[in-house]
Amino acid sequence: MKIPFYIVDVFAEKKYAGNQLAVFMDAKDLSSEEMQRIACEINFAESTFVTHIQPENNTATIRIFTPVSEMQFAGHPIIGTSWVLLNKIFNNQPQSMTLSVPIGEILVQQTTDLVWLQAAQPAFMDVFSHEGLMSFTNLVTADFDATFPIQEVSTGSAFVIVPLQNKKALENIHFDLDKMKEWLQKNCKTNHRALYFYCLEEEKISTRMFCIEKNALIEDAATGSASTCLQAFLLKYYAPEIQLVNHQGDCINRPSQIYFDGKRSDTYFDIKIGGKTQFLAKGEWEV
């Protein structure tokens, strides 16, 4: 059996930047095990599998896999897959669509060269001390921005949001992997255990995302799901309305730009992230 696939760079202002994504079409007959093996073989941060599509209604259903597990929600796979569907698959070239993922339906819109997704309502979970983070990093007290808490937030996938004072502290982070793994397993409320460090300087956000996969430290080039959590965090603690650009991936030579457009009204969060997608290749995968 052969299935078509596309490769794109997501949250990328140009090719060979942002976060890589493989989008596999006509995947309804693949088993979960086959999807996982394919995602492991291609070894991008995530790959998506389109299992159901209704071009007449501008809707599709996808599953999202990292090289080691299935995700319930992830931003760059949703943005990238939607771009492929809107620009390469749907003949009527619509400007909006609905993408179903395990956590539910996600509204996606395309404006000029940006694709935007509307995130689910956030859950704000445990708050942590600086000392906890210092136990497995080289950070010192002065590196943290004490204006904000350190808190785990989820809009479908959970991240521990860690505010830092400046970009120098962000760029120079180092970890004790064993102690980091122990801390994440002890403190994170879900099976998705990850850290999202950020600094906010002169209205510019710089970020880095770290997690552990196969006992190795992984840094992500552009993390849409973490960006929705960070936007929710900033709407709660920084300002009730935000229009900023999140810069991620610079430290691993994959510069990425994730656009924020959010508002908060009392307890309701209107969270949108957007990004550009660069088309690289298409082909056939023999299963």
Automatic annotation (TrEMBL):
> Which positions are catalytic residues?
E46
Any one GO CC term of this protein is:
cytoplasm
**SUPFAM superfamilies reported in the protein's UniProt record:** Diaminopimelate epimerase-like
One GO term in the molecular function aspect is: isomerase activity
Q: Which PANTHER family does this one have?
A: ANTISENSE-ENHANCING SEQUENCE 1 (PTHR13774:SF32), PHENAZINE BIOSYNTHESIS PROTEIN (PTHR13774)
Q: Which NCBIfam families match?
A: PhzF_family (TIGR00654)
Question: Which family, according to UniProt?
Answer: Belongs to the PhzF family.
Record-given protein name:
PhzF family phenazine biosynthesis protein
Recall the taxonomic lineage recorded for the source organism.
Answer: Bacteria, Pseudomonadati, Bacteroidota, Flavobacteriia, Flavobacteriales
